[in-house]
Amino acid sequence: MQEPVFNLKFLNMAWVTTCAIFFLYSPLRASSYAEGLIDQAVRNNLHKKASWKKILYYSNTWFGDDIGIIDSETFYLAKDGKENPKAELSATIAAFFSPINPNKPIGHHPLCAYPARFRWLGRHLTIDQSKLPEVPCTKLKKWIGNNRFARLSLVFSSYYPDNPASMFGHTFLRLHRSKKEGMSADLLDQSINFSAFPDTSNAILYTLKGVLGQFPGKYQLTPYFMKVQEYNNAERRDLWQYELDFSPEEIEFLLFCLWEIGSHHVDYFYFDDNCSAVILTLLEAVKPQLNLKRSIKAWVIPADTLRAVANSPGLVRSISIEPSVLTKFLVRYNDLSRKQRAVVDQLFSKKIKVSQLSKQPSAASAADQTRILDTLLELIDFDDRVAGSSLGEKHTSLRQEVLISRSKLKLKPKQINYNSPSKQPHLGHESSQIGLGVGSYETSDEFLDLVWRPALHELLALDEGYSENLEIGFFHTNLRYQPEQKTLYLKEYSLIRIWSLPTTPWVIKQPAWTLDIGMESVEKNCSHAQSVCQRYFINTGTGYTEDFFSKSIVLYLLLAGEIGYSKEEQLGSYLSPKLIYGAWVKASKAWKVLVQAKLFKRYGGVVTLDHQYDGGINYSIGSRNEIRLKLKRTDHRRELSLGVNHYF
Amino acid sequence: MRISKILTLMSLVASLLIVDGSAFAKKKKRRKKKKKKVEMTEDMSSDSMTSSGSYAYGMAGCGLGSLVIKKNDTMGQITAATLNATGVQTFGISTGSSNCRVNRNMAQLEQEVFMTANFASLAKDAAQGDGRHLRAFAEVLGCSDRINDFARVSQKNYGEIFSSSNPKVALDQYRGVIINSETLNGTCARARI
Fold it and tell me: In this complex, do A108 and B86 lie within 8 Å of one another by their Cβ atoms?
């Protein structure tokens, strides 16, 4: 009885084994080839290659681990692919050899969906193409075939103080078409933009969610003319183009990378995973030898990415400007004689009619009339924010009248070069500042100051590469130590500080304005035996400027208001109307002086009328360092200090 | 890394925004009203596009692409949509007519989109008899090799072409002028639709 049982068992086992071998072997025939490749890839440590990590957008955490920045679940093929480049490599190879799923469109096969990874693998492993499933990838081929580009530019849109969300500027990519086959029009180029797709229009939610990475960030490909309308015309910002040293083949690879990202998203963080940072990762994916992100700080400011690109040897071929409607107007306006400028002003304010233009002595020739009307057109378009097919509201009929007269002149516009190399935004000083100062109160108490400010630019600093007449500061922090009292305290902390002192011609005079939100320590008159007490405030105001000697001296006068709070009874909660006036002198490129006074009355607590002033003299040494002498009178006490600042 | 950064920034930024936010909202609203600017936002699926009666532009010959003119919009509203047509990729690509094999409907849409997105600038270039918008439009109409004649004809007939501030009407007028121009003599092939 025992033997048959044994036999039966034996037979049974043999059957199971044969079945198992057959079952396992046949569907995995292709995969065993894949497994061989996976082994080979892992043995060669391909997953440790920087180029692999870069096409999958891994970045390092503070602990040195890899983490992928793409937040869609399907972008990484391995379950732990977001954190594990090795698992992702194996999963990717396996996926390429996976059979075609009849329930899905054939174009969804990984070979079609991840062309950049496939090309990368082809460079590092010898792949027997005949072992791969046959997928035609028609859509991908068509898309790539339709998009042949010759050159690539990184485009920076200049600062835009009207809109806090874009105060740091913005960057995107431009794909230049090849100039062959009658495709000469540069406006029909394409642009690649990475931006947040917000789901709310509530401003507070919008910004909070933006900071916390609650919006999906996605790439968009749009015709370049849309960017021109949006930035140059509607928002009046210059676009600076940095043409990059990318070959047509590299640009094609960039398109493969974009195709892979496709509908996947990156959680958009206003401060780090923002437009500029993500654009850099894309450039590095194509040229892994680049190390652009290394020089970037914890928060990414678009101008910093521009400096990273400009300072990378041989990466930038040329720099050019697409002038905004404001720049075009200013350059054309300055090109006119004083009398002709007056004619432009009068036409604009409808004091003279367009039909009477030829009767003006300064507009006798058709060429002069052309220059005047072309300037006037830029002025109208600037003032009415003419863009797209929106013709504005204020000057619609004047514009049409001017255009009809202009067409009858039968002349082309005067060619003007708008490039002004000193304004190239990468030339600006670095955005973070650290400073050290020594000073003394009039009571001869001495103090040491330590200053830190992550961003961005002050009126006293070197203004090359920055928007003139605009100060933007975030998180300005000033620690003060008084050795005699042995006290260390936060002297000043500012969340945001903006000074906009525009010096545009009278015809488009824009108001000066300021916003300052922060706290300040007051050393005097503090109760409870404390030596310092704090005052929190929001200060805002608007006014006008007047400039002299070709803008080297700017005088300003602002009406402002402050709401403040302090635990001190003397201050308490208060409201304070203010008159702020000052002079800003740009003596030379390196020397600047700013003197400012505030006359104000505080209501709440004890009503006080006060007059404060402060002044600074700044000398810039190169673009990284500066020496600054400051005199300040606040709360009945004067202080004088001398400091050095360093930009990094 | 992110979390620690956020925690430090959160408190600071939040307080800033509470104050700044409302002002920003007002400003935003006001600007929207004022300029009806060219907008480029919103992720639209192809479904929502067809149901809302918008034109999908550039879909057929040039990949997935696209720009969308919303039918009910006031002029000037062009939306660049990222289309999630296949579930794999979203990229739209459009215009650059010479890049694609263009059929009649596409050429029409392309011209409408270009005209709507660039109406004010194109009118200015036409009156001035020169400019990049004029060059681009010549290419869209298929006669960039005759740009000088195209510019001259546009300038000479500015009043007739741009008698209406409606881009579609202006497009028809423009094409009429180009087709009937003896100078251009039918070289702008795509003007005939």
Answer: yes
